[in-house]
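I hope you will forgive my troubling you with a question about protein structure. The record follows directly beneath this note:
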Amino acid sequence: MKALCFYEHGELDVLQYTDVPDPEPGPGQVLVRVRACALNHLDIWVRRGWPGLKLEKPHWGGADVAGEIAALGTDVTGWEVGQRVVVDPGITTFTDTFTRRGEDSVSPGYQILGEQIRGGHAEYVAVPADNLMPIPDGWDFPQAAAPLLVGLTAWRMLIHRAKLRAGESVLVVGAGGGVNSMAIQIAKLAGATVYALTSSPEKMERARQLGADVVLDYRQDPQWSKTLYKMTNRYG
């Protein structure tokens, strides 16, 4: 199969679009034919590398995969070849105290597709069947791939960790990024009042379209924290 991979860390010039061996699904895994894979800043960080990051080379990124099931490994039930799916990019490799209490992402065995393990910037990827979710009717592959990693990150922050409830207020700082764009939508769906802070008229309009109730330009209002303090009746 083809993959957009690198054999050494570096800038864009280290990327190669080349042939690599096809993955094979192991027990409990499925082989997904990648139809769309979003880009994240994580892909840049992984390509550049950091101290302590050890990857099998060649490596390819891509956390957000949408595609079709191409093959089933042994012990896989409930899925069919040809079914349209997305892949949860957070892969748990073993069970421990953290996973048993629902804190998979802090387990030493937690890995992210495209970071510690090869991802979706290739024609196929083998992943655990437990990480699959069906694509809703009416969604195309790019739409399905776009919100995965950023959506899970925002959900964990707001719903899992902060326990956000209806009637509360949320400030989203830097509302133009992927995680923060999802945070606006998740907070709004949770019934919160959403304040967004960004840096240009275009980003301000986008934040409003996503559901932000109040949008401030921190460049135009350097005292934005005081402004928000007053707007919330000194509640914050």
Notes: The two ends are 53 Å apart (CA to CA). The chain has two domains: 2-146, 151-231. The chain has a mean pLDDT of 95. The helical segments are 41-48, 97-100, 141-145, 148-161, 178-189, 201-210, 224-231.
